[in-house]
Records
---
Amino acid sequence: MSEERAERRKAERRRSSGQRLDLILDITRRLMSVTDLDALLRLMAEATTSLLEADRATIFIVDRDGGELWSRVALGASEIRFPVGRGIAGTVAQTGEVVNIPDAYADPRFNPEPDRQSGYRTHSLLTFPMTGQEGRVIGVFQVVNKRGGPFTKQDEDTLASLAASAAVAVENAQLIAEQKQLWQSLIETLAVTIDARDQQTAGHSQRVTRYAEVIGREMGLDGKDLEKLRAAALLHDYGKIAVRDRFLQKPGKLDDAEFAYMKAHAEKTGEFLAHLEFPHDMRDVPVIASQHHERMDGKGYPKGLGSSDIVLGARIVAAADVFDALTAPRYYKPAYPLDKTLEIMDGMAGNHLDPAVMAAVHRALPALEATIAELKHTWPKPGDEGMGSIQEAAGQLSERDQEAAAKPA
Ligand SMILES: [Fe+2]
Ligand SMILES: [Fe+2]
């Protein structure tokens, strides 16, 4: 009879360990499909909680630069940080050894302070290292309050399997995040170098990017499309790197030959960016950027494209470009107020600018106004080189208006 019962228990264990393996495999598959670190940490915490039949789990990540552990998933709270070496999780991060505490309040390593503050009661506690490819501890699992008793050796084994695949997913997500940061800082640096060449358009690329983003959102762009728009706006005048200083910084009207030369910057933008190996899903950034001076009536440059050949991103950058040329001060004009800016831009809708984009500009007016206020400090100052005297230019304003709009740089 007791033999029979033991057999039955054994069979149950086999079945449950089979189920557990299935679960781990399923979680591993899901982990591998997530490349965003925050989403990954949430998923890992949920998976650990259900897999070990615990009440809650927190995943800490070791920040190599700061010698700290951080987490964003603990109790739905904002980010918490503490040094490696402090507390149980900090110790596990340092030693790489598992700490399994059946009764927290009977263990001197446990700090009851957080419980006291939150009113929570910790009973059992399993703290487990996540080891990366180079044998370094890259994170720590902390699982709290196993249902029906302390954490077992089997729980430790289960967590070991989960931690192994979690480590791969975390390192992968970290690598992707680093590449993204590198990429982002690279294109921001390129934009800054362009704006730095010409005092008159200081901060221009940055402002055009922010305005384009506001308009793009208003038009329903999100995710990758918004990312592409932002990159293209940042780099739209990159071709100016090839324009000689004497044209770029000429503090007066350009003659036709000079203007034709200046125009080449849009084509150069496309040419130069074609050399950059863009990430696969960002391949149309050079196209968007190089079309920012094309017009709806086909009279734009460099290609004189018809409206149906101008990509939406380029139409948005074109409007953002004009918007900044008008709202920011230039050597021949002061900063125009919003109503005057819109009046001029409305006059350009249809032949130069896309009416659908202009409609979005009108709808997004409060956000655009707030963005102008936020970016005012990046405007060129009257005393800056190439800015000349705004008063001096005041008499020529009306004549220059259309020009400013037509040549937003
Ligand atoms: Fe521009
Ligand atoms: Fe331009």
---
Amino acid sequence: MTGPRQGGVEPARDYDQMVDWGKRLGREEPFFRGLFAEAGVRRVVDVGCGSGQHAIMFAGWGLEVAGVDPSGPMLAQARDNARAASVGEPGLRFVEGGFGEVEALLGGGWDAIVTLGNGLPHVDGPAGLAATLADFAAALRPGGVVVLHLLNHRRLLDGRIRMLPAVLRETEEGDRVFLKVLDYVEDGIMFDFVTLTRDAEVGPGADNAFTYDDPAATGWHLRSRRSVHTALPVDLLEDALDGAGFTGVRALGDHTGRALDVGADESVIVVARRAGEER
Ligand SMILES: C[S@@+](CC[C@H](N)C(=O)[O-])C[C@H]1O[C@@H](n2cnc3c(N)ncnc32)[C@H](O)[C@@H]1O
């Protein structure tokens, strides 16, 4: 019996393949440009920066940017992406670290801190969220802006939604299907990220039945990664931001800046300002 083979691609590359970055950044760019102009942002930290695509975009606008992530492979991918985009130090740097460590790693006085693409639920429970936001407040200047972009957990929790829309990408490794299957556990949402890959070179055969333990028959491979996320419904985020000294908290439903429809929107963007005298 043959066991399932490895799909052959690293999670960090999986991530860049799964996300249509051209489309996503095109949609998000006007939002960040407007917000950063309004808040006088020149220096920004992206925590949970992943493969660095936002950090690279911000640096391309001439901002000073630090991308922070605990994952070595993600940081390596971010540095590769930055090289490919011809952006780098001193305007852009990538630093190994995570939630709760921003001020210790990068000091204070930052104009904006963003955490995007559902990175925030990696905090360790509500106490971890409080510590994360306190650290953001310490690293921001008064009037500095925070942007939290994540799945709309209130909709997931209330609807007990079991699966996010599947994504299909045509890649050099063949067709890839990205699935996210959700389970609800105490205080959290467990995500199984399942990646199926179909080797491009495997053609039609006499017997195309799928056999789990003999992927050579059809060329399909399966890889699954599991992680438990802290449940962060928007009401909890709003309270936690208030408790950490943020004001002007706004919950948006997408990057056009319209108000959140909590029962319908897939994602939420929460924007707030650090209280205190502006410079
Ligand atoms: C889904 S990716 C989001 C990447 C990117 N920000 C985006 O918008 O697409 C989540 C990222 O959070 C990072 N992460 C995991 N645990 C973290 C922690 N404790 N602190 C900060 N980032 C963390 C992961 O390494 C990963 O790069």
